[in-house]
Amino acid sequence: MRVAVVGAGPKGLYAVEELLARAPRAVVDVWDSRPPGTGAAYATDQPVWLRLNVTSAIVDGFDAWRLARGEAAPLDPFPPRALLGVYLAERWASLFERHAGLSHVARAAGTVEASGAAWAVDGAAYDEVLLATGHATDSPDGLAAGWSGPQALVPSVYPVSGLDAVPAGAVVASRGAALTFIDLALALTEGRGGRFTGEPWAPGYMASGDEPGSLRPVARRGRFMAVKPQPGSAIASAVSGAVRERGLAAIRAAGDASVALAVVPATARNLLAGLGQDPAGVEDVFEGAPTHADAVDALRASLAVATDRARPDAGWAVGAAWRELYPALVERFSLGGGLAFEPFAEAASRLEGVAFGPPPVNAAKLLALVEAGVVDASSLATDTIDGSGHHGPVAVDVVVDAVLPGPGVVTGAVTLPGRLVEAGLLVQAPGRRGVAHTADATCLSPDGHPLPGLAVVGRPTEDATVGNDTLSRSLHPARDAWALRVAARFEEER
Ligand SMILES: Cc1cc2nc3c(=O)[nH]c(=O)nc-3n(C[C@H](O)[C@H](O)[C@H](O)COP(=O)(O)OP(=O)(O)OC[C@H]3O[C@@H](n4cnc5c(N)ncnc54)[C@H](O)[C@@H]3O)c2cc1C
């Protein structure tokens, strides 16, 4: 029996580890034009100021590995993404060493076709194929598709070497003000020799002279993301386990979507009440109201809470509740979870910026750049950028697209799952962006039948399975169910 795993990013790695732990002699080809472990975000040669946006503790074994190779405790909770790339590459290398049947096919897979009772990946026959293709690098929704603006366009922030095209002194507008925007801001400052000095949560910025004249983020929502709590701070451990467990249980027991979603503000109020804080404002934040009229004030206030320099507020509580309850939300709003998806989709889009924002270190740098006048957030909500260019009162030289291609099926021949949907082999789950699949990741055909031996995990399944943009190994059981099934088949057929 032969297995193909298409994509050697984190999710391909986790899948192969689970499979080989159960069937060590399985014959597995891992297809990826990138070196195994690199994925969309973890190239080992990227600059160190491109950091993880979640605490490193989310990746099993990573912190123990860092300590074992001599990194001093306490560990930086938001280390360089390049370092994670080294760790993931070592995990792949250890698999290749220990399993003679595992090989790397160092190219992108162009097609998957039915071939008798099996599958052909670019003509090579496999009994089992797992698509773990992750992020699209390109999208028909990106600015590059049909750009007619008068400004020069840089179509992507990654790899950051592409930003060399931005001249020093240029006025730059960014489509997007989220995590990718912060990477952009750092690339054009720290990446050009600028330095952050002084207090960690209120640094100053020493310019190199190679920065843009100004960097102007533009965001539909008109605000920055709220800051994640600093691990080790009092606020990071302020979530009561009992409140969390009550919330998780209430969502798991909820009979409809509105009951399940109402648990989030209720939990936020309980968190604040438990800390002796006034729960006023929770409903407004949950419904999407900004915490402050000014985006920079909101960022500053959120950083202060995240670093124990201000009291917990409604913004923190709603973000914490959404993060803590996320495992139950994923269970209930993914396909098979029994709850209507639309209300969740609306809440998720409102709350992503409240719950999954930058680490304090990057928020503090962003504020320093605002204070130094390099980042100008004054028209965050009022300027617009579309295919015909940047629109606003200030003349802009360069536009950078700092919005990543969306999750789910990306069509226009850009991704393998997208091409398979266009070819009529796979289908988007009704009302959801991702590929329809069963609980063990087996793909469904357009007429709703499982396609034995063809499976999919991660970003191409978004909404059918909720919340794939994560390094967490435990949030989504479909991958392990796939590994169990394939390992059992391998043992049976031996
Ligand atoms: C810039 C950035 C920063 C991020 N930071 C974080 C973070 O700090 N924390 C976090 O939890 N998540 C983060 N994410 C979210 C990200 O989704 C996950 O961390 C993780 O990368 C998902 O793993 P994956 O294997 O599903 O996808 P990917 O990492 O996208 O890997 C997919 C792999 O499949 C390969 N591939 C694609 N198509 C083919 C094909 N046709 N043939 C062969 N191979 C193919 C690609 O080359 C790639 O190596 C970040 C994402 C980005 C883009």
Please give a quick description of this structure.
With 494 residues, this protein is α/β, with parallel strands linked by helices.
State the CATH class of the largest domain.
Answer: Alpha Beta
Q: Tell me the structural class.
A: alpha/beta
CATH architectural category of the largest domain? 3-Layer(bba) Sandwich
Bound molecules: flavin-adenine dinucleotide
Give the overall silhouette.
Answer: globular
> Unreliable stretches, pLDDT < 50, 5 or more residues?
none
**What is the end-to-end distance?**
8 Å
Largest β-sheet summary: 6 strands, mixed
Topology diagram in text:
Elements: E1 2-6, H1 10-22, E2 27-31, H2 62-68, H3 81-98, E3 102-105, E4 112-115, E5 118-121, E6 124-126, E7 128-131, E8 152-154, E9 171-175, H4 179-187, E10 195-197, E11 204-206, E12 214-218, H5 241-253, H6 257-274, H7 282-286, H8 295-306, H9 314-333, H10 341-355, H11 360-371, E13 384-386, E14 389-391, E15 398-401, H12 416-422, E16 442-444, E17 450-456, H13 478-493
Parallel strand pairs: 1-2, 1-7, 2-3, 7-17, 8-15, 9-12, 9-15
Antiparallel strand pairs: 4-5, 5-6, 10-11, 13-14, 16-17
This protein binds flavin-adenine dinucleotide.
The site of flavin-adenine dinucleotide has 33 residues, from α1.
